[in-house]
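TL;DR need structure tokens for one chain.
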Amino acid sequence: MKHSHIALQFGRMVLVAFFFNAIQVHAELPSDGGLRIEVTTAYNFIVDSNVESPSTYAPRAAYLSARIWNDGSTPINNVIVRAGDYALNTPGIYPSVSNPPTGQEGTFSLIHEGGSLGLADATRNLGTIQPGSYKPVYWLVSYPNLDENGTSVTRGVKPDDDLVLRYNIWATEASGTRNPRVERTATMRRCISAMANKIFPNTANKVPQLYQDLLEKYQPDWTDTPADGSPGTTIRTEGIWYDLGNVNKGFDNDGDLVPDQNAWLQPVGDPALFDSGSFRLVKTYALIIVKLKGGGELVLDVEDQLYFSNLPDNTGVIGLVRYDFKVLNSGSSSQLTPYQMAASGFDNEKFNGDFGASIGVGLDAQPSALDFAKAVDKEAADPGETLAYSLSFENTGGQVLGNPEQGLPFVVQDAIPAGTTYVASSAAGNNSFTGPGSFSVLYSTDASLQTWTDVEPAASTVRGLRWEFDQALAPGSEGTLTFNVDVNTPFLESSPFVPNTGVVVFGNGSPFLSDTVQTYIGGNNSVSGLVFIDDGAGGGSNMFGDGLKGPDEAPIENVTVYLYLDVNGNGQLDSSDILVAVTQSDANGAYSFNDLADGNYLVRVDRNDPEIPEGNVATVGVLKAVALDPDSNTTDPVNVTGVNFGFAPLLSLSKTGPATVLKDGLLTYEIALTNNFAGDGTSGQDVDVARWAGTSTGDTRWLTQSNAIGDTPSTFATVDFSGQPTDQLFLGGFTATGPGDV
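>> reply
TL;DR here they are.
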């Protein structure tokens, strides 16, 4: 039995404990130049003995875990550790096996459960590891329980036909001279469900009173305690008084022909309920009380160890465990499904039968306490001009955000936009920051922004920037980070817009805040036209509603005209189309858009613009497509003119009556309503049914107004004019559209 005697602090009392070295690492190169990988994952993954029953609900996920050590005398910088297939260099994709000789049908591998972060979760940037210390890493994976025929992957009862899966963990550092790597196996082992092994015992009567008093924990409990639950803060979940039962014999995992007497604690067994991309396990603590057969207790008070082996003979084991989850983004929620495994007789192990019970209140990510904004100094620019970007942030909450020691520093990151070139040294100058600590600028030359260096490369090769802070972001801390780019000449991008998005992350987590600005890169093209009354004034060849402005047709001033980039070139205004510019027609009804890049555009006016005379409708459309050399076939300017918008009165109203009347005579008036556009039944050209409505003053009023409907002949509405001679009759209650109102 391997152990060392150490004194550890837990609660208010110093306990003497035995720390068991549970792991024997067999790897290709576990240590390289003082950078060492210590795997702390259990050898066996639990497969329920009743897994072939549809009603079974048992663990299907576990955390791979390791400690990354610096055994040297100087700091090791920019340590990156990955899990997956080392030979294929595929972080997050693990070695697979097809139709193994043990009889399972299908192809099998561990599946990385990166949640909202996906496979990127398999790569962790741990930053600097100090001499003589380590940083823990945890990766959630799921594993198969059944083969493609619905048969348990453990096959029979004996362990020699169990499915075995491989995984690799490897690390690199800044200089590139150290590259430790390990390969381990996980065996899918048939385990029985045991209700005696409860995560949540009914009482704490199995716990010695000394430890109940020591921790002031007198009842089993499960707690979820967030700092505030916002991104960058920690949620601590604590399982108080696990009952592992009698840990006895079990499997021989290390091949020394002696059963290992092992136990394992895990927080997540059902990956479908948990998003490890939003809640990253960063630290664990365990207090394990082993009640010795010969009397007394052995207390294991440990950090970052969830697997225990070579436990002494005992009459029972009680535990307390704490999991620290760092919140990486907003708006997510997850449920823990903790479980445990313990040796239970020779060649047999058991897991708790209350797996999947509702434990705790769940993890909830709250809105960010960080303000973040991106800005650019130019909304429009020409090729060759310089764009200056700034990214501002402030911690407006009451908690520190991020933790560099856990590989989750506060980070602001940006990608160099396509069609531009980074300006050398601009990311390291003109920055400001108020708060404890400092930051370093990192540079990436690959488009995926996966690798970073703190040495600025040639400006033309820089594809991304990363400002990484060496301390957690304290409340009230704020800063502004800047960099510049030059717009390429010639500018050859398919879109004339240069969008740029800045993000905030912790470590390599998912961005939880972002802001985007964009700049329109101009060209040498233009589009212009007129807005006018298309009523055929002046006669001659000038015709009503023909879309051509005659010399006597009046212009319409101050009408707003919009220019859009037609992203898909379909000639329709879609939600994806981008507003490029807005202008107004001048005193001559003229408008123009200049310095336009190649592309498909849409020009639009609003038929309800208040400057368009009431009763006028569009004669030839309110949206027009314009092609400005979209395929960039020429470098010469393309100037499209005559993109006109005409408006004309849809209806004409005339009234006729007697020029003279006799006293007490009958006055008859005729009111004629004319549709000025062709009434051919085409949609948008017919006038809806018109209803006459009157106004009256004093005692006079229109009688039988419902009779005054234009499509019903020989009906009358009357009024007594003796009270007021100014009563009027109005046309209303209809919707008028012209042929160009589309």
